[in-house]
Write a structure and sequence with these properties.
Layout lengths: L5 E2 L2 H19 L6 E6 L3 H16 L3 E2 L8 E6 L4 H20 L4 E6 L5 H10 L5 E3 L7 H11 L3 E3 L6 E2 L12 E5 L1 E2 L10 H5 L3 E2 L2 H13 L4 E5 L16 H9 L6 E5 L8 H9 L6 E3 L7 H6 L6 H14 L4 E8 L6 H14 L3 E6 L17 H24 L5 E9 L7 E4 L5 E4 L10 E9 L4 E5 L4
Parallel strand pairs: 1-8, 2-3, 2-4, 4-5, 5-6, 6-7, 9-12, 12-13, 14-15, 15-16, 19-21
Antiparallel strand pairs: 10-11, 17-18, 17-20, 18-19, 20-21
The structure holds S-adenosyl-L-homocysteine (SAH), iron/sulfur cluster and FE3-S4 cluster (F3S).
C-alpha cells in the first residue's frame, strides 16, 4: 500500500506567519534594518528551499547581505551528497566563530541535508557550540517558530527528528532571479541507490497537488518569468503517491498549456521511469526545452545492480534511442560515478564505452564518496584512490573531447537564446542559454536585453561553452 502524502495544514502555516509577525515586533526596536545571510550548498532543491527561507526572513523584517560580518542571522543550507561537500561546510561553519566573536548576538543556523544526519548533528552539538539552530529539511516549514525560540529562550535549538516528510504549501518565497524560476513538484526519493544519502535525509517521495503547481506556474508566467524548472529528485515518478491519474507527462502537458512565452525544464530523471509517453509528450509540447538530464551512473551491469539502479546498460541505451527518435536534436546530459566499491578497471571500461556510444552533451562526473548509513559504505572497496583518479581522468578526457566536438557543431548556426545575465569575463557583455541549456557568451549587448529571447549567431566554441553575437535584427 502506497503511503499517502502528509500535508502541513493551512492553520499550521498561518501560525508560522504569526511567528514572523512576532519576530518582526522583536526586531522593530532596532535602529537599523536587521540583515540575514543565506548561504546555499548543493542541488537546485536546496536553492529552491533557500528561496523559502529568504521569504520567511523577509516576512520577519530582515534585509539581505552576503557579508558574514554584517549579518545578524546567518543561515547555512547544506548538502550531504559527498564528503567533500560536507567538509567544505564544516570548514566554513568553523570559521564563523570569528564573525560571531566580532558580532555577539549574531545567530548562526545550519539547515539542509547535513542537519538531518544524526552524526553531523552530534558533531555540531559537541564541537560547534557557536551554532544556535540546527534543523533538517523536514522542519523547514517551521523555521519562524524555531528562530523565535532561539531569540526568546537564548538556548540552542536542534530540530532534526527523522520522519517520512510532508508537504507545506503557502510558505512565502523570495526568488533570487527575475528571469528563471524553480518550482518543486515533489520531494524525497524512494529509490535507495546504495551509494546515496538523499533518501535518508529527504524522506519518502511525495508530490504536490497538480493545482498547486499549476497555480504557481501561472503566477510565474504572468509575472514575466521566461524559464520554469520543475524540480524533484526523480520527477518521472511524479504523482504516484497521489492516486489522481496525473503522471509527470500529464503535468508537463498542463504546464505547457499555460499562456506565455517561457520554456519548461525539469530535473532530475531516473531512467527506470523515463517513459515513451514522456518522450512523446516532450516532443509535442512546444514550451518544453529539448534537453534531458538522464543519469546513468555506470555502464556496467554488475555495478548497476550493486548500485540498485534497476535498469541495465542495454535498457539505458534503449531509452536514449527512443528519446532521440522522438526529438532528434535533444541535448542529453548525465551523471556518472567512478570508483564505486568493487568496480574493477575492466568494469570502468564499460562506463567509458557507454559515454563514447551515447555522446552526451555534458557529463557530471563524480568519484564515489562513502556516506555513513548507506549500504555502499559497508561494501569492500579494494581499488586504491590513485587508480580511481586515473580512471576518472580518462573519463573526463573522453567527455571533454566529445563536448568540444558537440559545441563546435554550433559554430555558424543561429540559435534562439534566452539572455540571462551579465557576463563577468573580459571581452564579453552578456550570457545567454540555448534551448538545450548550453551557455553562450555574447560579445556585445545592452543589459536591457536580459530576460528576452534573441537570435544569436554562434561564432566560437570550446569544451565548456559557446560564444557569439546577436544576429542583426534579432
Ligand atoms: N536524484 C538524482 C541525483 C541526485 S545526486 C538522480 O538520481 O539522478 C546527484 C548525483 O550525485 C548523482 O546522480 C550521482 O551521480 C552523484 N552521487 C550521489 N551520491 C554519491 C556518492 N555517494 N558518491 C559520489 N557521487 C554521488
Ligand atoms: Fe539518490 Fe538514487 Fe534517489 Fe537519485 S534516485 S536521489 S541517486 S537514491
Ligand atoms: Fe545535496 Fe541534499 Fe541536494 S544532499 S544534492 S542538497 S538533496
Amino acid at each position: 500500500m502506497e503511503r499517502q502524502t502528509t500535508r502541513v495544514s493551512e492553520q499550521e502555516i498561518a501560525r508560522q506567519r504569526e511567528f514572523c509577525e512576532k519576530m518582526s515586533e522583536l526586531l522593530s526596536a532596532r535602529a537599523q534594518t536587521p540583515l540575514a545571510y543565506v548561504d546555499t550548498y548543493g542541488c537546485q532543491q536546496n536553492e529552491a528551499d533557500s528561496e523559502r527561507l529568504r521569504g520567511y526572513l523577509r516576512a520577519m523584517g530582515y534585509g539581505f547581505t552576503t557579508d558574514e560580518n554584517a549579518a545578524d542571522v546567518i543561515v547555512i543550507n547544506t548538502c550531504a551528497i559527498r564528503e567533500h561537500a560536507e567538509d567544505r561546510v564544516l570548514g566554513n561553519v568553523g570559521a564563523l566563530v570569528h564573525a560571531k566573536r566580532r558580532h555577539p548576538g549574531q545567530i548562526i543556523c545550519l539547515c539542509g541535508c547535513m542537519a538531518q544526519e544524526e552524526h553531523v548533528a552530534e558533531k555540531l552539538r559537541q564541537s560547534y557550540r557557536h551554532v544556535d539552530l540546527v534543523f533538517g529539511p523536514h522542519a523547514l516549514w517551521k523555521f519562524p517558530e524555531l528562530l523565535y525560540r532561539v531569540f526568546t529562550r537564548r538556548g540552542r535549538v536542534f530540530e532534526n527528528a527523522d520522519e517520512p516528510g510532508s508537504i507545506a504549501e503557502g510558505i512565502p518565497v523570495e526568488r533570487q532571479n527575475g528571469v528563471k524560476a524553480w518550482v518543486s513538484i515533489m520531494y524525497g526519493c524512494n529509490n535507495f541507490c546504495t551509494y546515496c544519502i538523499v533518501p535518508y535525509v529527504r524522506g519518502r517521495e511525495r508530490s504536490r497537488l497538480p493545482e498547486d503547481i499549476l497555480a504557481e506556474c501561472r503566477e510565474l508566467a504572468q509575472a514575466g518569468y521566461k524559464e520554469i524548472t520543475l524540480l524533484g529528485q526523480n520527477v518521472n515518478s511524479y504523482g504516484k503517491d497521489l492516486g489522481l491519474n496525473t503522471d509527470f507527462a500529464d503535468l508537463l502537458e498542463q504546464v505547457n498549456a499555460i499562456p506565455g512565452e517561457f520554456l519548461i525544464r525539469f530535473m532530475t530523471s531516473h531512467p527506470k521511469d523515463a517513459s515513451q509517453k514522456l518522450f512523446e509528450t516532450m516532443a509535442r509540447c512546444e514550451k518544453v526545452a529539448p534537453v534531458f538530464h538522464l543519469p546513468f551512473q555506470s555502464g556496467n551491469d554488475r555495478v548497476l545492480k550493486a548500485m540498485n539502479r534497476i535498469y541495465d546498460r542495454s535498457g539505458y541505451l534503449e531509452k536514449v534511442r527512443a528519446l532521440r527518435e522522438q526529438i532528434p536534436h535533444v541535448v542529453i546530459t548525465s551523471d556518472v560515478i567512478v570508483g564505486f566499491p568493487g568496480e574493477t578497471t575492466a568494469e570502468f571500461e564499460d562506463t567509458l564505452s557507454l559515454v563514447e556510444e551515447v555522446g552526451f552533451d555534458a557529463l557530471f562526473t563524480f568519484i564515489f564518496s562513502s556516506r555513513e548509513g548507506t549500504p555502499a559504505a559497508k561494501m569492500e572497496d579494494p581499488m586504491p584512490m590513485a587508480q580511481k583518479k586515473a580512471n576518472f581522468q580518462r573519463l573526463v578526457d573522453a567527455q571533454n573531447a566529445i563536448s568540444a566536438q558537440k559545441h563546435a557543431a554550433y559554430i555558424g548556426k543561429t540559435v534562439r537564446c534566452l539572455v540571462d545575465g551579465v557576463c563577468q569575463e573580459e571581452g564579453f557583455a552578456l550570457t545567454a542559454r540555448t534551448p538545450g541549456n548550453r551557455l553562450v557568451r555574447l560579445e556585445a549587448g545592452e543589459e536591457s536585453l536580459i530576460g528576452t529571447y534573441q537570435d544569436v549567431t554562434v561564432t566560437g566554441a570550446n569544451t565548456w561553452s559557446l560564444w557569439g553575437r546577436l544576429s542583426v535584427g534579432g
